[in-house]
Write a structure and sequence with these properties.
By secondary structure, this protein is α+β, with helices and mostly antiparallel strands. The protein has a single domain, classed as Penicillin V Acylase, Chain A, CATH 3.60.60.10. The longest helix has 23 residues. The radius of gyration is 20 Å and the shape is globular. It starts with a strand and ends with a helix. The relative contact order is 0.14. The model has no long low-confidence stretch (mean pLDDT 95).
Length: 422
């Protein structure tokens, strides 16, 4: 499960386009933030994706990717051309096919190969028609789905929705959001495998799975969050939103209807990583990443695709995994009652407020110096590292097994602790 949002003028500050996404997956699945450099390849050489191999292209763009630890592709990311993409699981009536492309592979391929949102649409749809989509996307259980994509650059945006090899596209402006449901009806401007007047969502939605995904409430929350003159801090707030009736109990009961999703009991997905991007034309775009789960108790840190500033972005996936696990230990300590979430939240969001203020200052006049941006990013990461170190504890993640929620998390805690020991 996931939620992806974007805002263009007049909903975004002048000269920017905003993009945001929460990745909701198994709570024990490390969510990595990695940097892939621009690179030249031997055109046509084999490129191994999650399940299949396709021909490589001659040149790929640099990108910051937010991805599950075991999958080649990415849930979301931004490339050096300021193209941002996020994907969503959608549930359709199409029968499951053989292993092929998965949505996350398509996100990464488009970020590495495309300099505009329009070209990303062309690439994703052509690859989908050629190879199809299929394969397990679950970390600790089988999970199969089709995909939708929100693709934006500093000038325009698109949504692609898919069902097997069939697809439909709409252009977006102003504000838009997608979740775990088909939403395109007959208004598609491009399409594949369907007629011009085909009701894509009406004909292809699996209504049972879509209903239980909780996506209706989350999509409503996302749209209501997008106001005029949004900035990065307001997008972060949107990703931290809980369903009002669940807000006071998210560390005691799961909430699939919250944009900041909390697992527990019958609810198996949790927000494992978050990204907010401020996209600019002819200036560096600012990426704000948590490098951790549970954005309501995490800190967004500033990074830039053009700059190697270290944590929370890594070239080495093992280092990124360890970074995530360190912060996940704090989340588990909140669940067990060792850490007060309000104290943790207050400390980290105080830091984050300073980061946002400083970033605005750097971009207020002219194009800032890259060395200055690098130092800003390094210092922000160091301050967050120092802050979270005060909350680390050696206590075991143990909860009284008196209800389904606690039993769920005790099992997950033991599995994660054993995985860390291996």
């Amino acid at each position: 499960m996931c939620d992806t949002l974007c805002a263009f003028s007049p909903y975004a500050e002048q000269g920017t386009v905003l993009f945001a996404k929460n990745s909701d997956r198994s709570p024990n699945e490390p969510h990595l933030v990695i940097h892939v450099p621009e690179k030249e390849h031997i055109a046509g050489s084999p490129l191994k994706l999650t399940y299949i191999t396709i021909p490589q292209v001659k040149y790929t763009y640099a990108a910051v990717l937010c991805k599950p630890s075991w999958i080649w592709g990415a849930e979301m990311g931004v490339n050096s051309a300021s193209v941002a993409i996020g994907n969503e699981a959608v549930f359709t009536k199409v029968k499951r096919g053989p292993e092929a492309l998965i949505g996350m592979d398509l996100v990464r391929l488009a970020l590495e190969r495309c300099e505009t949102a329009e070209k990303a649409v062309e690439l994703i749809t052509s690859l989908l028609e050629k190879y199809g989509q299929g394969g397990n996307c679950g970390f600790d259980h089988e999970f199969f789905y089709d995909n939708s994509f929100l693709i934006v650059d500093p000038k325009e945006g698109y949504v692609i929705e898919t069902a097997g090899k069939r697809w439909a596209v709409v252009k977006v402006s102003g504000k838009h959001a997608i979740s775990n449901r088909l939403s395109i009806r007959k208004e598609h401007i491009y399409r594949g495998g369907v007629d011009e007047d085909f009701d894509f969502a009406g004909k292809l939605t699996n209504r049972l799975y879509t209903y239980f995904s909780g996506s209706k409430k989350r999509l409503e929350s996302s749209y209501l969050s997008i106001k005029e003159n949004m900035d990065a801090s307001m997008m972060m707030k949107a990703l931290r939103k809980h369903y009002p009736k669940d807000d006071s109990t998210v560390f005691k009961r799961g909430s699939v209807r919250s944009v900041c999703m909390h697992a527990g009991g019958l609810i198996g997905d949790h927000t494992t990583g978050s990204l907010v991007a401020v996209l600019r034309d002819n200036k560096p775009s600012t990426l704000w990443v948590t490098g951790s789960s549970t954005p309501c108790i995490s800190c967004f840190k500033p990074v830039f695709v053009e700059i190697d500033s270290g944590a929370p972005v890594f070239y080495d996936e093992c280092e990124s995994k360890n970074y995530w696990l360190k912060r996940e230990a704090i989340h588990r300590s909140v669940l067990t009652g060792v850490i007060n979430p309000d104290i943790l939240r207050s400390k980290l969001q105080e830091l984050e407020k300073d980061f946002i203020s400083r970033e605005k200052e750097l971009f207020s006049n002219s194009n800032p110096d890259l060395q200055e941006l690098k130092q800003f990013s390094i210092e922000a990461a160091e301050k967050e590292e120092k802050a979270i170190s005060c909350f680390l504890t050696e206590k075991e993640w143990s909860m009284p097994s008196k209800n389904r929620f606690n039993r769920y998390w005790n099992k997950k805690n033991k599995e994660l602790a054993n995985a860390c020991l291996r």
